[in-house]
Amino acid sequence: MIHLVVRWLSVSLLFGWFLSVGLLQAQTGDLGYTLRWAEVDDPRVAGYRVYYGVEPGHYLEMIDVGLETTHRVTGLEPDTVYYFTVSAYDAEGFESSYTPEVTSGAFRYLFGMGGPFPSDGGWVEVANASLLQEQRIKAAAPEYGGGSGEVRVATGDLNGNGRDEVVLGFGPAPFGQSGGWFRLLDSNLAHLAWGRVDWDDYNATNGETYPAVGDLDGDGKAEIVIGLGSGGGGMMQVFGYDAGGLVPLGWTALDWPEYNALSGATRPALGDVDGNGRADLLVGLAAVEDRARPAGGDPAAFSETGSTPIPGGFFFLKRGIDLAGSEDETMRDALANRLLLEREITTGSVSWGEYARQLGETWPALGDLSGDGRYEIVVGLGRGGEGLFEVFQYDAEAIVSLGLGALNWPEYLARNGEMRPTVHSRRGAPGQILFGLGAGGEGRVEVFELRYGDWENVDSFELWPRQYRMAEGATWPAVKLESR
């Protein structure tokens, strides 16, 4: 009696040209998807079976394809998201376990959640393109997540296979524990690796991590940038990933001693603002109490006397980060690593001066909102920002405002008002901005599109479960691409 366990069998859903053909055929009711998988090198294999259905993990249809390793499933509904898997079987009918599931959806939504589940280590909700809940992923071990339970989500293609992997960052470590952790999930959302910031002192005193993912060197494989919280000295660590695991590549920093001494938190986002095929680094800043802003809005204009010399409403764009690095003696002594230099750094600031003079925190995102392949800059305002956000464009070494938008929800604006953006770049169409909300946001995610020259709130949806929405309610959205 033989029971096949084909652990090395892998299946991938072909997109690109095949998906385009399927979408064209959808008008005549003949939508199809082609699946291909690696042949199992085992003489016992007598054939393969393709399973599919309209709910994750539940397959109502089965097709025996014999020894073929490619099969096209046809006769599908054009507006339905399907889930596929494959198994192998032997001559006696014994069957292997399923391969990792693939979906016909071009993307998934991921939502990081904070309290009231901190003792469980935080969670990530996963939904398909139709907002059908697929699963809830436990983000971290309970002993680590017990501090705040916050989970920050970033996505990008780490291995160049056309599907996004996921990087999870976490809030401050619980009292008496050391943080600095982040976690990688594979494209099928299985656990891939744990990573940690190489700075013991920071990990012991705060340890929160803000991840961003993007291809800094244009090789088709994304890098990871980890921003730090208060006490982080304006530092961000850069990592690569290969089959052997995470590879520390160096550090990049904000050269702003006054801000770094009072907060030093960095909130990174990555994307290609100039269309050269390499990601640029956008950095938002945290709130600092009792800030003051000089006339002219130039951070360099702060003096050593008088008003507190810290920024308000500023963000920074670093272009051309060189992963070859530069051996800086001071940085090497302090952090046992190299400092990565950028070709250019440009300062931007939000238009609302009163907000900038008070707290002035900035939540950054990058994405293709116009559909031209170049990424725009989105900056959400923080607590007290009245639900405002501003969109910018990089143009000839300058950052130019394209206009503001706002959330119209008076109750939330009175409680908090924080807007945490991510951009859903859509092929051949203008992008959308998804905003996660801060504490008191009732688990809502707000969606904005540019319509007739104004940013319109076109959709709003809530996370699960209800007790989370009514308690903490903070959200950290991301979009995971399943094909490129």
Task: Supply database-style keywords.
about 475 residues; mainly beta; Immunoglobulin-like; 2 domains; four-stranded antiparallel beta sheet; about 10% helix; signal; Fibronectin type-III domain-containing protein; glycoprotein; Ig-like_fold
Explain the layout of strands and helices.
Elements: E1 11-13, H1 17-25, E2 31-37, E3 45-53, E4 61-66, E5 70-76, E6 83-90, E7 102-103, E8 107-113, E9 123-127, E10 133-138, H2 142-145, E11 151-156, E12 165-170, E13 181-185, E14 191-196, H3 200-205, E15 209-214, E16 223-228, E17 235-242, E18 245-253, H4 257-262, E19 267-271, E20 280-284, E21 314-319, H5 329-335, E22 344-349, H6 353-358, E23 362-367, E24 376-381, E25 388-395, E26 398-406, H7 410-415, E27 419-426, E28 429-437, E29 444-451, E30 454-462, H8 466-470, E31 475-481
Antiparallel strand pairs: 1-2, 2-5, 3-4, 3-6, 6-7, 8-9, 8-31, 9-10, 11-12, 12-13, 13-14, 15-16, 16-17, 17-18, 19-20, 20-21, 21-22, 23-24, 24-25, 25-26, 27-28, 28-29, 29-30
